[in-house]
Specification:
The complex is a heterodimer of chains A (113) and B (115). By secondary structure, chain A is mainly beta. Chain A contains no helices and eleven strands. Chain A has strands at residues 4-7, 10-14, 19-25, 32-38, 45-51, 56-59, 62-67, 72-77, 86-93, 101-103, 107-112. In chain A, strands 2, 4, 5, 9, 10 and 11 form a six-stranded mixed β-sheet that branches. A five-stranded antiparallel β-sheet of chain A has the order 1-3-8-7-6, with no helix packed on it. In chain A, β4 and β5 form a beta hairpin. With 115 residues, chain B is an all-beta fold. Helices cover 0% and strands 57% of the residues of chain B. Chain B has strands spanning 4-7, 10-13, 19-25, 31-38, 42-51, 54-57, 64-70, 73-78, 87-94, 104-106, 110-114. In chain B, β7 (64-70) and β8 form a beta hairpin. The N and C termini of chain B lie far apart (30 Å). The chains are: A mainly beta (113), B mainly beta (115). The interface between A and B is medium-sized, with 26 and 27 residues.
């Protein structure tokens, strides 16, 4: 089945700096890569996703890049703000399809003032 | 997301007890999921259901069972709770859209402590 590895597990940046979180996947047939943000005391929420027919997707201060050859994808947050502090999860389709996802282990992002 | 609710939000129980966690959704989605979150392990799928008559095991189903009482309700049971089932449990829903992979909407979670 799919195996998703996520790094780093924790990331601390100064407000205004950029943050990058990286994930690798094992199944070359995977074609959908979402990113979820989990704020303290809440459930994860989709913030951006990318499909394998594009290499990059942007939504204001966040972007996701995909390298299918290397089987890795990354989340980029620019001009970080305190409200970006949260746990971020990457994911890829799990074996067996049907909208099942395999999640990475999460990255705790802290944006310091 | 208020469209997906979980009860209870917190639960303390003792080893050997049977407990049930409940999930309800008003999004009209056919697909529902139960996940478990542990520090350093991310989210792991316990069970999932693609419609009322469909129940499937996820990657860590041992010690758990589920019931899909209606399109809007999906409950998770721990038949005989053990301490290593202490975790944060999430219910999620998704549509079965034409793209094949649709956004999952998560509830607020249930924090379970097994003593």
């Amino acid at each position: 089945g799919e195996n998703v590895e996520q790094h780093p597990s924790t990331l601390s940046v100064q407000e205004g700096d950029s943050a990058v979180i990286k994930c690798t996947y094992s199944d070359s047939a995977s074609n959908y890569f979402p990113w979820y943000k989990q704020e303290l005391g809440k459930g994860p929420q989709l913030i951006i996703d990318i499909r394998s027919n594009v290499g990059e997707k942007k939504d204001q201060r966040i972007a996701v890049t995909l390298n299918k050859t290397a089987k890795h994808f990354s989340l980029h947050i620019t001009e970080t703000q305190p409200e970006d502090s949260a746990v971020y999860f990457c994911a890829a389709p799990a074996k067996g399809g049907g909208n099942k996802l395999t999640f990475g282990t999460g990255t705790q992002l802290k944006v310091e003032l | 997301d208020a469209d997906v609710t979980q009860t209870p939000r917190n639960r303390i129980t003792k080893t050997g007890k049977r407990i049930m966690l409940e999930c309800s959704q008003t999004k009209g989605h056919d697909r529902m999921y139960w996940y478990r979150q542990d520090p350093g392990l991310g989210l792991r799928l316990i069970y999932y259901s693609f419609d009322v008559k469909d129940i499937n095991k996820g990657e860590i189903s041992d010690g758990y069972s589920v019931s899909r009482q209606a399109q809007a309700k999906f409950s998770l049971s721990l038949e005989s709770a053990i301490p290593n089932q202490t975790a944060l449990y999430f219910c999620a829903t998704s549509d079965a859209g034409p793209r094949g992979l649709e956004t999952q909407y998560f509830g607020p979670g249930t924090r379970l402590l097994v003593l």
